[in-house]
Structures are given as C-alpha cells and as structure tokens.
Design brief:
- The structure is a single chain.
- Helix 1 crosses helix 2 and helix 6 crosses helix 12.
- By secondary structure, the chain is an alpha/beta fold.
- The protein has 3 domains: 63 residues, Winged helix-like DNA-binding domain superfamily/Winged helix DNA-binding domain (Arc Repressor Mutant, subunit A, Orthogonal Bundle), CATH 1.10.10; 109 residues, D-Maltodextrin-Binding Protein, domain 2 (3-Layer(aba) Sandwich), CATH 3.40.190; 97 residues, 3-Layer(aba) Sandwich (D-Maltodextrin-Binding Protein, domain 2).
Length: 310
C-alpha cells in the first residue's frame, strides 16, 4: 500500500523526469533543486517497491515498471482534470474562465495581440494562462487541466484535436560578426563545424534538428543545450554559438535581436506545425470557441504550408 507521503506532486516530478530523461532538467521544469528531485524519486521507488529508472548516459530512462507507472499517472491526472472541470461547471465558474496554455515560443511570437483583443471583447472572461514546453501543454490538454493550448502540434494526437495555425520554417541564426554571417545561405555541414546551441535532447524541436543532421550524415562538432528558443537566441547574441531557430521568432518583433543574423539553411528540409490543441470529444464552450476563432483570424497563415527548401 502506498503511504500518504507520496502525493500528486511526486507523480508530477516523476513525469517531468520521465519526459525529460534528466533529473537536472526535471528540477528546472518543476522549480526544484536536483537533490529534492532525486529524493522524491527515491521515496517513490521505495514505495512502489521496484526501480523506476535506470542510468542512460548522462541521464535516466524508464524501466518497464516506470513505463507502467507513467501510463497510470497519466490516467490519474486525466481523471483529476476532469473532476476539477466538473466542479467548476457545477459552480458556474467555467462559463467565465478559460484555462489556456502556450509554449514559451508561441507566447513570444504573436500571441499577445489576439489575447489582448479577446480581453477587450470579453472583459468578463478570466484567462488563466500557463506557459511551458509544447510537450507539457499537450499533456495538460489531454488530461483536461487546460481547455486549450497554442503550441507545436505533436505527432501523437491521441486524445487531442489539432487546429493548425502556421508552419514554422527554420533558419541559421549566427552572431553578426560570425564568419558565415555575410553569405547568402548556410549548409548544415558548414554550421556543424561551429559550436551550436540547441534545444534539450528529446524536445520536439531537437528531434527534427537531429533528424536533419542524421539524414545528411553530419555530426556537430560542439553542442550546448538551452531550455527555450528565446534563451538560445540570447546565447547567439552573446556569441556563444550558432543556432537553428524558427524564422518567425527572429522576425515577429523587428529589432528584437539586433546582434543576430539569420541566413537560409540549405539542406535542412524540416518544419513543424504550430496550432491550437483541444481535447478530443470535448465541445469548446462559447468563450473558448470565440478565442479559438480569433486565434485563427489573427494567426492563421495558409501560405506557410509551403516549405522553403534550398
């Protein structure tokens, strides 16, 4: 029998470790110290009675028991989310509240305008906004803890309905005084010869970047990992390395990154879709539907379906 010492917080931490493959990254995501994360996972493993993680390189990966617990915890959080939604509906609060989510990137790339406009149209509606990784937002929508989220659309759509807004194309982002900053384009092979700043291993963006390198049979010489695309852009401005970033991040706000030069990335051939996530089988409320429609009006870009390959 599991003791009362193990709470939902422990399962939240467990899922963060499981999805990131790292105690360190989980600590950052949960705003905890790494020793606290390690302690919680030790207590959880003792309570369950079997190892949940095994060492894998510098990180960890789930054992078969850990995979089972991850599936069960997803079901637990889904039920909790649905229960809270029913409580809000019974109290009438949900009629004037939207629990929304956004990835860090989307929050900084055009979301402010539509949200301000919606609040002007419907001042009686409260928007509770959560910001995190796209993977985290998808999980929260699937579990019913968020009504909707704007993020990178996941390949795995189980339990989710996806509404596309635009397709991101990627460019090489280099410091203004970098050797390749003056050219008309940069190949993956050229970029890989310099220090690179990339998203964390296993994240949606890193997966497509790694896939592009594998397809070209290119191995980067030196890689540093930063948690968010905005942090990566800041690192490029500091001349800590080059990066592969969505073109939209660098162009949405003119002059935001004056020390970065973007160049077409030859041979990349990857893109990702950004859009709205809602839970399958759940009809959006009146206010949710209005917000989704406004997002489509302001952010939908049909022309971004065309990948620019060079």
């Amino acid at each position: 029998m599991i003791s009362q010492l193990v709470t939902l917080d422990y399962l939240e931490t467990f899922r963060a470790v499981a999805t990131s493959g790292s105690m360190h990254r989980a600590a950052e995501a949960c705003h905890m110290t790494q020793p606290a994360v390690t302690r919680q996972m030790g207590i959880l493993a003792r309570e369950v009675g079997v190892p949940l993680f095994s060492r894998f390189g510098r990180g960890v990966r789930l054992t078969s028991a850990g995979e089972t617990l991850l599936r069960e915890s997803e079901e637990i959080f889904r039920r909790v989310g649905e229960g809270l939604a029913r409580v809000r509906e019974a109290d009438g609060e949900s009629r004037h509240r939207i629990a929304a989510g956004a990835s860090h990137y989307v929050a900084a790339s055009g979301l402010a305008g539509p949200v301000r406009e919606f609040r002007g149209r419907s001042p009686e509606v409260r928007i509770d906004l959560s910001i995190g990784s796209s993977e985290e937002m998808a999980v929260r929508v699937r579990e019913g803890r968020l009504d909707l989220a704007v993020a990178t659309l996941p390949d795995r759509a189980e339990g989710l309905r996806r509404i596309r807004l635009w397709t991101d194309t990627f460019v090489a982002a280099v410091p203004v005084d970098h050797p390749v900053s003056g050219g008309t384009g940069v190949s993956l092979e050229e970029l890989a010869a310099f220090p690179l700043i990339l998203p964390p291993a296993g994240s949606a963006t890193r997966v497509l970047i790694d896939r592009a390198f594998r397809r070209r049979k290119v191995r980067p010489e030196s890689v540093s990992e930063f948690e968010t695309l905005e942090a990566i852009a800041a690192g490029v401005e500091m001349a800590l390395g080059c990066a592969i970033l969505p073109e939209r991040l660098l162009t949405t706000v003119p002059g935001r990154y004056p020390m970065i030069v973007s160049r077409p990335l030859r041979g990349f051939g990857e893109s990702r879709e950004i859009g709205v996530l809602v839970r399958s089988g759940k009809s959006p409320g009146v206010h949710e539907a209005a917000l989704i429609e406004l997002l489509r009006e302001r952010l939908f870009d049909p022309e971004s379906n065309d990948l620019r390959r060079s």
